[in-house]
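Narrative progress, year one. The postdoctoral researcher (J.K.) led the effort to move from monomer predictions toward full complexes, under supervision of the PI. The following entry was the first complex the group processed end to end, covering 707 residues in total.
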Amino acid sequence: MRFAFSDEQLAMRDAVRAFLEKECPPKVVRDAWTNDTGRSGLWPRLGELGVLGVLAPEELGGFGGDELDLVLLLEETGRAALPDPVVEHAAVAVPLLDDARTEAAAAGDLTVTVAPPSGLVPYADSSDLVVVGDQLVDPGALELRRRESVDRSRRLFALASPPSSINLASLDRAALGVAAQLVGVADRMLTMTVEYAKERRQFGVPIGSFQAVKHHLADVALSLEFSRPLVYRAAWSIAHRDEERSVHVAMAKARASEAALRAGRVALQVHGAIGYTTEYDLHLWMKRAWALAASWGDAAWHGGRVGRAILDTETLPEEH
Amino acid sequence: MDLTFTEEEEAFRAEARAWLEAKVPRPPLPSGDTREGFALHKEWERALFDARWAVVSWPQEYGGRDASLMEWLIFEEEYYRAGGPQRVTQNGIFLLAPTLFELGTEEQRDRILPKMASADETWCQGWSEPNAGSDLAGIKSRAARDEANGGWRLSGQKTWTTRGAFCDRLFGLFRSDPEAERHHGLTYFLVDLRAEGVTVRPVERLDGDEGFAEVFLEDVFVPDRDVLGDVHEGWRVAMATTGSERGLTLRSPGRFMAAAARLTELYRRHADHGALDADPTVRDAVVRAWIDADAYRWQTFWTVTRLMEGGHTGPESSLVKIFWSELDVRLHETALRLLGSRAELVDGDDAAWMKGWQFALSGPIYAGTNEIQRNVVAERVLGLPRR
């Protein structure tokens, strides 16, 4: 038992974090709210950096890695609120593509998005392909209607007929990827709010010195501390084809969704009225959290999956 | 990352499982927080010690197996999976012993640890006083120097002392420098509860057991060899103990994994009887308890991996204490919901849930209330200002 990432994985995480801190500041997220694509413009550079091709084989220009190599990078894209279909592309689509497309996808010359069970496809108009069920489809061949998300950097299109079934492996990888992003989103909101609570003074003292505020923030730290290991464990289970991987993903997505929603709620409350304005950056992350917490199954839906696994099977659960 | 257990870890697990399955008392022992139950638990502790399962992570010379932290977690999983009895030695082996290992003398370790592990000498904790609970630095009990006899004279009152009515010895803090205030001028003493001047009054707890006690000390002599750490440095010594209490050692994930498994069995039993129609939401609560226990397990493996690779744990142990104590309350609350109007029964097969619920309610209070723990998280993990 060794539950820790390798030095190489951590170095890659650090490189992606540094890149996004520099290239994807809040202004980039904000611009994606109003530009034509909803995207960051960083796609080819994410390809160069290796983020998009983690799951692609080395001979096709990828990293030849697995979900464990990817999960920390997706967490970073959440921390930066990167507005791009990176989970759909890098976590779900890449393993489904033929060699030529894999090579282009790893390099960032191609964008592939995915139709989730809701039929709300993110960034369909700037994607070259859409995964619909087991099919790879040209977005031009789909009947799509533009819909507006509360997070306007998530440019959504409703599919006239949502996919009737989703491949379980794709569902698991998407839910894992979104869970990792949610952990990053939650962590960023916590950091932002702690900094604000140290600086904002009322009654002559920083509001972070008030116990009521401290306890709110401690609760966010608590839900993050006990969500993150579930996300990393689920990544291992997918990468190693553990028989229980779908249950592990469900636990991870359920808890990451809750952690991000709690973080958003507390962040807003502690910021007070300034957090309620759109000129302050908090709302960019809070709205991302709302959108992602419900996408690819919310906490209750994934809780239901766990429940069926542990409560409805014939035999008693022997081990965790 | 490798989330499988090594061959050695699996062999260790198999050995523990086989022994526990053969030896765990059936039917379960009566509560160890009663006089009769305590005596039976001491016999069980002796059996654990004789088979070298009492303190697996300790060095062999004191009765342990030099087990790794990971193996200790595995042992705990197996212990609770097998329905092993509560550990009446826990305050000694989990709270005092780590301090002895860190700050005790060779003489103290040799004299105290083997008898602690075999339950020949049982220990209780003397922290709280009538006016010093969460605010531990407010303790008033005094220690006066007795130079002629080479020791100290203790006076004062300790309270809420778990199993104080049955234990042989007490470890705790006393004010040795009357001029000093708060965290200064305290000394950590190891006190013989059979010594002259000690009066112990049992106090009945919420669950009806006489597991609590008040300990009155009047001019009780304690020799110098029973001072742990440096004189007047007791606060620092005591914090070494509370560090381990809040952290990894007191309540390991195995305990909650076993409880969550029992909860799913209870659910299945009630689902069969159609008893869930009135409250379909209880199913979500069962799932929540299961995920909580699993989350605690993996958070612990995460921390233990870091520790085994030379890392440290600090104030984040407060997060752990909050998590397991509140998980325990939610888990038992869910069981009582499943039992419905039969939850109040304190006899019969399901009585353990009401008993466990009452015990769980103490979790957010003991070992530093969760309000204090949340302050610690906010100030020392997140860096928010103290005032």
